[in-house]
TrEMBL record:
Domain of life the protein comes from: Eukaryota
Name recorded for this polypeptide: Glutaredoxin domain-containing protein
Protein family according to the UniProt entry: Belongs to the glutaredoxin family. CC-type subfamily.
GO cellular component: cytoplasm
Glutaredoxin domain location: 13-76
Keyword match Cytoplasm: yes
Record bears the keyword Iron-sulfur: no
Assigned keywords, A-Z: Cytoplasm, Redox-active center
Species, as recorded: Lithocarpus litseifolius
Cell compartment(s), UniProt: Cytoplasm
Amino acid sequence: MAAVTSLVAENPVVIFSRNINCPMTHTVNSLITGFGANPVLYYLDRMPNRQQIESALAQLGRQQNQPAVFIGQQFIGGPTEVNSLLLRNELVPLLLRSNAIWVWRGA
């Protein structure tokens, strides 16, 4: 779990994907970047400690074929949970609270 915690602590939005070609990862990343956030993507198939990371993510409840999304160091879940936050109008406030995006309030 320490490996995931340290990677997540470094950035406001982190997405763990099984590989670079995962369509669900692309969808979630596009949604989040559309609001101005800049998620860090980790591709498990390219990580030397892949098994350790996958084990930690499984303990959190990640489904193996889905990306795992963290916002503000909090495990959100996968695409279904991110979409649910969006539909409840909770995604943008969560991104704002985690400093993943900011709103300029100029004169």
